[in-house]
User: Fold these one by one.
Assistant:
Number 1:
Amino acid sequence: MTCSSCKYLKEEKRVEGKVCGACYYCSNFDKYVKGSDNKCEKHERNYGRNNYNCDKIYNEGLEYYDDDKPIAIYIVELVLFVILAIILNICSF
């Protein structure tokens, strides 16, 4: 069992990842957890949540990615990599 099927996971308290996926609030731990996390010692099955919603929460937990780098950082890294590749290619002759 994973957190996606636990009664302590609150579906209405959802935080979207900046890139994709989502985390949900766990009232047992008093923090946000991914739906794909393993169950804790106090895990209790939520029989009111259907399998479709459990699967959706689980998949969103697997896909959760919260990248906080601005796009400019990636562009600078790409430019530096291209310059380095050109220099190494010229020096190899």
Note: The chain has a mean pLDDT of 86.
Number 2:
Amino acid sequence: MRIAVFVLGKEGYSLACKINGGYEKTEIYAPLKLAKTINEKNIIFFDEPLSKKVSKIFNDYEVLIFVMALGIVVRVIAPL
């Protein structure tokens, strides 16, 4: 099962790492602005709006986990 975890901040990244530790095929996505504060190679940084990134990869994963406010998630996935 492929899992994508989306984070928007450093604290969210810490939680995503805990999720990542329990599953083999987990990929963590974070905005490019976090590349300076998160120095890890196992993270996929994106420089486009969250809604565009999610719409591009929506069908590539069985599970999408969002570590952020629920209102953001609803606005991002509602059009899909």
Note: The beta strands are 3-7, 26-31, 43-46, 63-67.
Number 3:
Amino acid sequence: MLRSIGSLAKDIIKTKIDSANAGSTFYLNFKGIELTDVSFVDEAILGLQKEIGAGLYGNRRIVLINLDEGVKENLEAAIYYREEKYNERVPVLFLMSEEITVLGNLEKSLFDTFNLIKDRRTLSARDLAEEKQIEINSASNRLKKLYDYGLVIREEIIDSDGRQHLYSIPV
């Protein structure tokens, strides 16, 4: 029953996202919502986040705010279920006490890269390669994975050094 309501909620959110400018961040406010089930958040939030990660909405992102502890637990259960049953990682951005964080599992290198972007505000593959003493292609792959998960936004810059992408946290 609640999966169908989650599908309706996702459709409403998708309409708003589709009509917004590229690079927009949508804050999904759960204030006052104290009860959801795993199927609702799986459909409404993780289903949408998966579509965002697949590039269906360009550079638009979602951030969850004001999650009640019970809703957060159900979201974490849905994330865990997708990982275990379908071998899918669908991490989501969560704003808590004015700090953005990731709900869901990330490889340590991706989590470290996410935190580095958070600390620096923007990060290029070249910056990451220098900071972590890794090859530029490894740095590019880490940033691309975060982008493909829908956790960062990307801006293309063309300057005298050539073309590069700058990554930032969507807040």
Note: The domain at 106-171 is CATH 1.10.10.10 (Arc Repressor Mutant, subunit A).
Number 4:
Amino acid sequence: MQEAIHAARAWSRGELPMTAARKAAIAAHAAARDVIETSSAAARAARAAGHAAATAHVANHAVHAAAYAATAIRDFADKKEADIVTDREREWQYKRLVELLERLR
């Protein structure tokens, strides 16, 4: 999973070819399949990392990375806090997106 995150970041800086990022994405998705029975939070986190790295191949994967990150946090959280922490994650994602878009202006 960490390899996929590092690959996504390296690709975004132009330091890694798309094919290497895609390979890391595929490995993260395989890891997600391996842990789904023991931890839905870990599986969703691995899916988030995989989709982040897969953005190098198809930009629309970014939406799935964000969604899986939020659900990973929800699944890891105490049930009473799940909605609150999920909302916080989505707010953070939105603010980060706005920051990144402002840099492009």
Note: Residues 4 and 23 are 8 Å apart (CA to CA).
